[in-house]
Design a protein that fits this description.
The complex is a heterodimer of chains A (about 450) and B (about 450). By secondary structure, chain A is an alpha+beta fold. Chain A contains ten helices and 19 strands. In chain A, the strands form two sheets. In chain A, strands 1, 2, 3, 4, 5, 6 and 7 form a seven-stranded antiparallel sheet that branches. Chain A has a five-stranded mixed β-barrel with strand order 9-14-15-17-19. Chain B has about 450 residues and is α+β, with helices and mostly antiparallel strands. Chain B is globular and about 70 Å long. Classes of the chains: A alpha+beta (about 450), B alpha+beta (about 450). At the A-B interface, strand 1, strand 2, strand 3, helix 2 and helix 4 of A face strand 2, strand 3, helix 2, helix 3 and strand 7 of B. Strand 3 of chain A pairs parallel with strand 2 of chain B.
C-alpha cells in the first residue's frame, strides 16, 4: 500500500469511529550526519523515521494521536483513540472546520537526487575539507564543534474535506563553532552555518568565514558605553527578523500577545522595509507544496514600504481574524513562518559604514528579542568598533538594549547583498540610536 | 515490547560485520499531552515513539544508525549503515576511540511512582489543566493570554552491549507548564513557571499546581507597571531557580569532559580554587523524583554523583566512557542520548549547589543595597563561562528590605567571577527546575540550589 493510501485509511477510520472531521499527515525521512569535535570527526549517524498523525474533531473538540507502525490494525486503533481523546477536550467555539481543498503549486528546487545518493564517504570528505579549509585560513583556528547533515523524505496530508497531497524534499545543512588560540590567549567563539535544499553549498566560504571571525576576536579591546548606530551582520539580522515574525504571526495576534494586532495598514517601520513570507521561494528552506493543514503555500506581503499589510495565518486563525489563510499552518491550530524574505537595500557594506562617526558592527549577539513588548536585551559577543566609517578594531563583550519596534523605525541602511540563514533571506542592516553598555 | 534475544542478535550481527564493540538501545516512549489556552482545552493528544539505536566501534571509529522500523531487514540495514559510516570516517579520525573499562551489568530498575498517570483518566487530567489555566485567567482582567500544557510520558529503555551488559529501565515523567501574559497601556508582561520530574500524578493531588498558577498570574500583573532597571554591577540575592540556571548553563557545561577536551574555562584546572569556599556543586543522577534521574546512562554505566566543585576547588569533570579513557579518569555515568535516534554524549543530570547556613530571609536583611532576582528565563552561555540570561522578576533591596519590582532584567558575566563572589549561601536547597537541556540533543535535566548572595552584572537601560 502506498503511503498516501495510509493517510486515506486514517481519515476513513477516524470518520468511521464517529468524528465529524478528520485530518491526517504522514512523514517519512532519512538523515545522515557527520559530527566534528576539536578538528576531528567524532560521530557519524544515520536515521530513518516514519510518523503518522491523526486528528479527530468531534463537536468542535480536538484529539490527536501520533504513531509509527503502519498496519491496518494500528491505524484503526489510533483513529479510535483520537476520537476518544477529542471527546475529552473542550468545545472550541472558534473552530469553524478544516480547510477545503485548493490547487497546489509545485515548488521548484527543493529536491535534489544528488543529496539522496550521497554516500557516507562523501559526507565525511566534506567534513574533512571544512576542517582543512579552516586550518588553511589560519592555523590558530580550531573547529570546536561542527556538523554536516543531509536529509530527504516525503510528506503526505489529507482531510475529510477532500484535501490530499504529497510532497518530497531534500536538504543539507552545516555549522561550525570555531575558536582561535595563540599562546595563552583564547578568542571568543564564532558560529557559522549554512543550509540548502540542493547540493550546492559553499563549504569553503563557511570555513573561511568561521575562521576569519574567530581570528578577529583574538585581539579585542574594551568599548565604552555610548548611544549610537549598530550595523548588524547577517546572523543578527536574521535573529531580529525571526523575532518580528512572531509579532505578525496570526496565532499571537488573535491571542492578543502581539502589539501589532491593531496596526494593520499603519506604518510600523521605515519606508525601505518590505518583508514577504514566501512559502514557494525556489530552493527555500521553508518551501513546500502545502503547509501543516494541507493548505497550499503561497507568497504573502507582510510589510510593504514600512506599512503592515498582513499577518501569517492558518485557516483557524484566519477565520478568527477575518482574513485569508496564507499557507502558514504549522498544525491545525499553530502558525509558523515559511521563508522570511527581507527586500534588500541598495547599499554596499562600505556605503552603510560611511558616515558613521562612532558605532558598532555586530556579528554575534546573545540575548533575547521579546516580540510581546519588543524589549531587546543581551550581550554582543563579537563586534567591531566603527570610527569615521571604518571598522577599526574588534571589541570585547558589551551589552545592548532597546526596543524592536523602535528599531524598525530607526533603520537607516540595508545592504544590497542578502544571505540565506535558515529560512530567512536577509540583508545587513544599520539601526540608529541603540544603547551600548560597556562591561568594563 | 521487543524481546532481549532480538537485541542480542543485532549485537552479534554488528560484531560479525566487523565491530570490535557494539551497543544496541531499544526505547519505547508513550506520551500524553493536553494543551489549554485561555480557558479552552484546545487539544488532547497521545503519541508513541519506539525505535532502536545501534552504535558500533570499527577500527577505532564510531558509527551509529537508528530506525523505528523493527523488522529484521530494517535492523540489518541499520547495522550495515552504522558499519559503513564507521569505516568511512576511520581514515579522517586523528586517533582511535578507546573506551574506559566498566563493570558488566545485568539489572532492571523501575523508578518509584505513587500514581501511574496511565491509570488516571484523561478527563481528570483535562480537568486539572483547565483548573490551572482558568485560575490564571480569572486572577485579573488584565491577563489577556494564558496557556497551560500538561505532559506525562512513560518509557522503557533496554540497553545491551557486546560486553554482555543488559539493563532495563522503566519510569514515568510528569510535567506542567503555566504561562500568562498581562497587557495594559501597551505594556505586555509575560510570566511562566514549571513543575514536574520523574514523578507520577501524585504531584497534582495537592494544591501546588494552583499555587504555581497564582505565582505566574501575580508576577505578570506586578510587573506591568515595573520600570526597567539601570544596568551595572550589583550585589544580588539569587533565588533557587536562577542559581540553578547559572550553575547548569554557565558553569555545568564547562565541566562536561567532551567540552573540557575542546577547551573550556575549566580545562586543566582540576585542583584549582575556582569559586568561593562556600561553593560546592554536584551533578547528581539520584535525587528521587528529579527530572534528570538516571540509574544508568545510555552507555550502560552505573551513574554516580559527581562532585564538580568542593568548597570552591574544582574536583572532577563529568565523563562518558570515551572521554574518561582520553583523560585517564573514571566514567561517571554522564553519557546520555535524547532517545534511540541519537548516540550518547556527555550530559548533565541534576546539577545543583549545596546549601549553606543562612536563612534565605537573612540574606536579604543583611544586604544594604542590591537586587533580589527570581526565576529564570532564556539566554545563552559559552564554554568560556560567559553568560547572559533573562530574569523573570527583580526587586530592589534597600537596607535589608525589598522595595519596588523591575522588569526586562538580564544578568550577565562570567560564571567563575560570579561563583568567586559568593559571600553567603542559604540553607534552603531546592531541586525544582525540571527542563530540557539542548546540546545538539534534548535531554531531561533538573537543577537548583539554595538562595545565595553574589555580585552580578545587571542589564537594563544604560
Amino acid at each position: 500500500m502506498s503511503l498516501l493510501n495510509w493517510v486515506e485509511k486514517a481519515i476513513e477510520y477516524t470518520i468511521r469511529a464517529g468524528a465529524d472531521e478528520a485530518h491526517a499527515w504522514l512523514g517519512r525521512s532519512t538523515s545522515m550526519r557527520v559530527e566534528m569535535e576539536m578538528d576531528t570527526i567524532s560521530k557519524c549517524s544515520w536515521n530513518r523515521r516514519v510518523r503518522l498523525g491523526i486528528t479527530a474533531i468531534v463537536d468542535k473538540k480536538m484529539g490527536s494521536v501520533t504513531v509509527q507502525r503502519l498496519t491496518e490494525n494500528d491505524i484503526r486503533k489510533a483513529a479510535e483513540t483520537a476520537y476518544r481523546l477529542a471527546r475529552v477536550a473542550n468545545r472550541n467555539d472558534k473552530w469553524l472546520g478544516l480547510p477545503p481543498p485548493k490547487p497546489y503549486v509545485q515548488p521548484v528546487d527543493i529536491y535534489d537526487t544528488k543529496i539522496v545518493e550521497l554516500e557516507p564517504d562523501q559526507l565525511v570528505e566534506y567534513a574533512k575539507y571544512v576542517m582543512d579549509s579552516v586550518k588553511e585560513y589560519d592555523k590558530r583556528v580550531a573547529i570546536m564543534q561542527g556538523m554536516i547533515s543531509t536529509s530527504w523524505g516525503e510528506s503526505y496530508v489529507g482531510n475529510s474535506n477532500g484535501i490530499l497531497g504529497e510532497d518530497k524534499g531534500t536538504g543539507i545543512s552545516a555549522y561550525i563553532v570555531t575558536v582561535a588560540r595563540e599562546a595563552s590567549r583564547i578568542g571568543s567563539f564564532a558560529i557559522e552555518d549554512m543550509s540548502s535544499r540542493k547540493l550546492d553549498v559553499d563549504f569553503t566560504q563557511m570555513a573561511r568565514e568561521g575562521a576569519r571571525r574567530a581570528v578577529e576576536s583574538l585581539d579585542t579591546r574594551p568599548v565604552r558605553s555610548f548611544r549610537g548606530p549598530i550595523v548588524f551582520d547577517y546572523n543578527v539580522s536574521s535573529h531580529i527578523f525571526r523575532a518580528l515574525a512572531s509579532a505578525y504571526n496570526g496565532d499571537n495576534v488573535w491571542r492578543k500577545s502581539s502589539p501589532l494586532g491593531d496596526k494593520l495598514s499603519e506604518s510600523i517601520a521605515v519606508e525601505d522595509l518590505t518583508i514577504v513570507d514566501d512559502g514557494l521561494l525556489p530552493g527555500g528552506i521553508g518551501t513546500s507544496k502545502f503547509d501543516g493543514e494541507g493548505s497550499p503555500r503561497r507568497t504573502t506581503t507582510i510589510i510593504e514600504k514600512g506599512i503592515l499589510k498582513n499577518f501569517i495565518n492558518n485557516t483557524f486563525t484566519a477565520r478568527i481574524l477575518n482574513m485569508e489563510p496564507t499557507g502558514n499552518a504549522s498544525s491545525l491550530l499553530g502558525v509558523a513562518p515559511s521563508n522570511i524574505v527581507v527586500k534588500p537595500g541598495d547599499m554596499s557594506v562600505d556605503e552603510i559604514l560611511e558616515g558613521i562617526k562612532t558605532g558598532l558592527f555586530v556579528s554575534r549577539f546573545s540575548g533575547s528579542i521579546r516580540f510581546q513588548d519588543g524589549v531587546v536585551s543581551g550581550t554582543v559577543k563579537q563586534a567591531h568598533l566603527i570610527e569615521r566609517g571604518e571598522k577599526v578594531y574588534s571589541v570585547g563583550e558589551c551589552m545592548i538594549s532597546g526596543n524592536l519596534y523602535t528599531w524598525l523605525k530607526n533603520i537607516t541602511g540595508m545592504s544590497r547583498d542578502v544571505k540565506r540563514k535558515g529560512e530567512t533571506i536577509i540583508p545587513i542592516i544599520k539601526i540608529e540610536n541603540i544603547n551600548i553598555i560597556s562591561r568594563t | 515490547m521487543i524481546d532481549i534475544d532480538t537485541l542480542y542478535k543485532i549485537v552479534d550481527y554488528c560484531c560479525k560485520a566487523g565491530a570490535s564493540y557494539a551497543d544496541v538501545r531499544y526505547e519505547d516512549y508513550r506520551i500524553t499531552s493536553i494543551s489549554v489556552a485561555r480557558g479552552v482545552i484546545e487539544e488532547v493528544s497521545s503519541s508513541s515513539t519506539i525505535g532502536i539505536g545501534i552504535r558500533v566501534l570499527v577500527n577505532g571509529s564510531w558509527g551509529f544508525a537508528s530506525t523505528d522500523d523493527l523488522s529484521i531487514e530494517s535492523l540489518q540495514s541499520a547495522v550495515r549503515s552504522a558499519i559503513k559510516l564507521a569505516k568511512a570516517s576511520r581514515h579522517v579520525r586523528k586517533s582511535r576511540v578507546e573506551l574506559a573499562e566498566v563493570e558488566v551489568v545485568k539489572d532492571r530498575v523501575k523508578a518509584h511512582v505513587e500514581e501511574d498517570p496511565s491509570t488516571v483518566p484523561e478527563e481528570e487530567k483535562a480537568k486539572l489543566v483547565l483548573e490551572v489555566d482558568r485560575s490564571m485567567l480569572s486572577y485579573d482582567s488584565r491577563i489577556k493570554d494564558t496557556r497551560t500544557r500538561y505532559t506525562d510520558s512513560s518509557f522503557t529503555k533496554i540497553f545491551t552491549s557486546s560486553e554482555g551488559s543488559e539493563i532495563v529501565i522503566q519510569a514515568v515523567r510528569s510535567y506542567l507548564l503555566a504561562y500568562a501574559n498581562a497587557v495594559e497601556a501597551g505594556v505586555l508582561s509575560p510570566s511562566y513557571e514549571v513543575m514536574g520530574g520523574v514523578k507520577g500524578f501524585e504531584i497534582f493531588r495537592g494544591e501546588k499546581h494552583i499555587k504555581m498558577a497564582k505565582t505566574v498570574a501575580e508576577r505578570s500583573i506586578n510587573l506591568l507597571k515595573a520600570p526597567i532597571p539601570k544596568g551595572g554591577l550589583s550585589t544580588v540575592v539569587l533565588d533557587n531557580r536562577l542559581l540553578g540556571l547559572i550553575v547548569h548553563e554557565a558553569f555545568g557545561h564547562t565541566a562536561e569532559a567532551d567540552l573540557v577536551l575542546t577547551g573550556t574555562i575549566l580545562t586543566g584546572r582540576i585542583g584549582s580554587q575556582i569559586a568561593s569556599e562556600l561553593v560546592t556543586i554536584v551533578d547528581d543522577p539520584g535525587p528521587e523524583g528529579a527530572n534528570g534521574w538516571i540509574p544508568y546512562d545510555d552507555e550502560g554505566v552505573k551513574a554516580r554523583k559527581v562532585v564538580i566543585v568542593e568548597r570552591g576547588v574544582l574536583k572532577e569533570y563529568m565523563q562518558s566512557r570515551e572521554t574518561a579513557a582520553i583523560l585517564n579518569m573514571e566514567p561517571t555515568g554522564n553519557g546520555r542520548a535524547q532517545n534511540y535516534s541519537f548516540p550518547p554524549i556527555v550530559r548533565m543530570r541534576n546539577t545543583y549547589m549545596l546549601g549553606g547556613d543562612w536563612d534565605p530571609e537573612e540574606l536579604i536583611e543583611d544586604t544594604r543595597e542590591g537586587f533580589y532576582l527570581k526565576g529564570a528565563g532564556g539566554g545563552q552561555a559559552d564554554t568560556n563561562g560567559e553568560f547572559m540570561f533573562t530574569v523573570q522578576e527583580a526587586w530592589r533591596i534597600e537596607r535589608g528590605e525589598l522595595k519596588e519590582p523591575y522588569r526586562g532584567v538580564t544578568v550577565s558575566g562570567n560564571a567563575i567571577d560570579v561563583l568567586k563572589s559568593v559571600d553567603a549561601v542559604g540553607k534552603d536547597l531546592k531541586i525544582e527546575s525540571p527542563g530540557m537541556c539542548g546540546k545538539m540533543q534534548l535531554v531531561p535535566v533538573d537543577g537548583g540550589g539554595p538562595h545565595i548572595r553574589c555580585k552580578i552584572m545587571i542589564g537594563g537601560r544604560a
